[in-house]
Amino acid sequence: MARMSVFRFSALALLLLSACCWAYNEVGPSQEDDSAELSVSELLERANSNLIRSANDPILTEGDIAIASEDERNADPCTSQGCKWGKNSDGKVYVPYYITNHFSDREKAIITRGLESFSSFSCIRFRPSRSSDRDWLSIESQNGCYSFVGRRGGKQVVSLARRGCLYHGTVQHELLHALGFNHEQTRSDRDNHIKVLLQNVQSGMEHNFRKIATLNQGTPYDYNSVMQYHRTAFSKNNQPTMVPIPDPNVSFGNAKEMSRNDKARLNTLYKCCECPHEHIIKINIHIHMYSTLSLDLIPLCAVSLLQKNHFQMC
Ligand SMILES: [Zn+2]
């Protein structure tokens, strides 16, 4: 009888242990379903809230931007020093990455899908790193979701914690940081588009709403950017911390993946739409003609060049 009890106890312990390990190894369907309605901004805030950070973790600002020192809080390294990844002679920008073995196959597939999505709308090509690479992204499951802004030189960590960061839009968001982009609400021209209500911001979080010299690339302020935080981000009282101007009821901060402007801005920064001269087909066209076309039918490069009254195709 006693032997039977021991057996039952062992079997139960084994069952509990395997259930625990399964839960740790895979993001369960219920967690995925719970998150389906959340924007990238909400997912990031949820994943990064209440983290206990250690001395080995980088300093974070604006929720998920890693910085090497306090001096970097008020400067965008991309505008002060340059931060772009180099362009190859074939016109592509190859960004080496290494995915650490923290992740399950399913989690790796989410990350890879995010990396590969950039190939469909830009000249960015994330590719597996080689021993000869000088600079590369090390994609790891560290403490929360975060990335440095732009190319830093050498190995730089992009953290996508297994708990909370593994969604298509959050992967794109962190990769955009690594490519040189900041949050939409910190844009140099943001005061024309959103009003920041500091009285509703959690004490000590005010720095997250600082304004910096950002790389806007001539693109309009975009409420639907995957880099725009949501209405109550860092709120201490559930009241808005940001309100759109002039219409306070406009929806914003709800993006679940990169917007058209996010893609256009990326293409402009990396000059993805510029091709070898002999391959250019330049079509002069008046802007009013675009008004009759669905935006989806206009090539991305054309959108980024709309202000120049022509578009070009390679
Ligand atoms: Zn961010």
UniProtKB/TrEMBL annotation:
Residues 74-276 form the Peptidase M12A domain. One of its GO terms (molecular function) is metalloendopeptidase activity. SMART domains: ZnMc. This is Metalloendopeptidase. It comes from Sander lucioperca (Pike-perch). The keyword Glycoprotein does not apply. Its cofactor is Zn(2+). The keyword ATP-binding does not apply. The lineage of its organism: Eukaryota, Metazoa, Chordata, Craniata, Vertebrata. GO terms for biological process: proteolysis.
